[in-house]
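Something for you to look into today, if you have time. What I am after is a single protein written out in full by you. I want to see for myself how the chain folds. Could you add the entry underneath, on a fresh line?
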Amino acid sequence: MSGSPGPWVLHVDLDQFIAAVEVLRRPELAGRPVIVGGRGDPTERAVVSTASYEARQFGVGSGMPLRIAARKVPDAVILPVDTEAYAAASAEVMATLRAHPGATVQVLGWDEAFVGLDSDDPERDARDLQAAVLARTGLHCSVGIGDTLVRAKVATGFGKPAGVFRLTADNWAAVMGDRPVIELWGVGSKVSRRLAAHGIRTVGELAAADETVLAGEFGPRMGPWYGQLGRGEGARVVDDTPWVARGHSRETTFQRDLEDPADVQSALRELAARVLDDVAAEGRPVIGLTLKVRYAPFVTKTYQRRIPASSDRDDVTARMLQLAGDRIEPGRAIRLLGLRAEMPMPDGAREGHTPTRSGW
């Protein structure tokens, strides 16, 4: 499937990345159901970070409570999260992608990146990238090929595991038209339900939808963008401008619910200290706070507040405690607390990191 020379977008997605890194370190686990999450103890409150394909066959998926995953697969090997190991493996993969002649690499996360290439045979380049990553790291990856970032990203799903798939304007409607909208990157269950209320259930129906209807439901910016997404359209150029964090967040799941206000305040101060350490490394002030509270048994609420730009730790901490005092419901047991601090973006930073912010 070669073609005329021109810009192509390749989306490289590492297969079962975290589980694969663990299997490389423990070859005896190959072929066994492996679950990674928390501290590797299913009796504790924690969620699955990833699961090997063998574990996924039993219905285990990311975000599932670890104890439920262990119940689904009693003979699974459950391992603790090792962030440093995954970051190191990811860095090796990204360096390999950047070494490919003519490649422009836009990192999306530990396990995926866009690669921009001028090529008359993008399938050949995809296979070369797969071989290079495997030789250097021992990890397998799937590659989606597209003429837009959206199409390349969606194409990868058809190539898994360890395959290559091309999705362009020529075959988008044939491949995607009859599929449910939730299969699009950037459309979750809530958006899917809102679209269904207007009789829009398939990608083809979304592609043909009246933009005034979409704008009425989602707003003048996001509405038309969802229509664009249904057509697979959007940016065609891979942007390797370094990614800059808009904010930093931390959260803690407590093994026992917090009920004493003093314990809640202590936990909040600890969270604030960790978040502000991350923010300090950025050299930018805090301009907004988001508090996440999960009440027992499992009701999650978020509370947001803009604040005057501040780099003073004591000031930011005091404003966070004030937000918590104003919004946390008294007398309710707390299962989880999370805190996010938002910062202003520096000049020249890349906007629109994700499709759900209409950056493409």
Remarks:
- Residues 261-280 form the longest helix (20 residues).
- Residues 294 and 300 are 4 Å apart (CA to CA).
- The chain has 13 helices and twelve strands.
